[in-house]
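Quick entry between incubations.
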Amino acid sequence: QVQLVQSGAEVKEPGTSVKVSCKAFGYTFTGQNIHWVRQAPGQGLEWMGWINPGSSVTDLAQKFQGRVALTRDTSISTAYMELSSLKFDDTAVYYCARNAPGIYYWGQGTLVTVSS
Amino acid sequence: QSALTQPRSVSGSPGQSVAISCTGTTSDVGSSVYVSWYQQQAGKVPKLMIYDVNQRPSGVPDRFSGSKSGNTASLTISGLQAEDEGDYYCLSYAGSYFVFGGGTRLTVL
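Done. Structure below.
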């Protein structure tokens, strides 16, 4: 069945970068866009962007343009989200998720903690 | 790219109906067929409840329904049950990006 498995929790210092991976199982990886969504502690969901794994075309929320890079490696059915120039308020759970339609399939989430 | 507007909280007793609104603009909710709703219970991953304004994924009870009028989408839950308690978020496509609502906490009294 469809599964999205994300990389483990990260602790990073302010100003550095983090790269979260999302490995897809159970479907044709290039067939559906992958969304990235984050949720700060006690806060709501925030859409960051998405990537078409087939073409590698991406769209990003304006807030993240210039600071987020979405990439993919089709040979291993894995999508990546890299967030640079980390700030304390980037501390959040980061989710990858797949269109089905609607965002039906979600990864388990990756906690990124920004701390000095 | 502002968040869609949802009430912070709603509540209802078991068996009652509640509606959660999601107000956007002509650039997102008002012009999109891609409005969806998500339920998130404490410590869990969000769950898709409605997609494409009013479509229910398999396995979601028909007590959950979606609609849209102008720039406002709505999620209605009829026959409230204790297990419906949680946070609800709307999401709309806006041409080249998506935007979530701020979330609504549903309390079953």
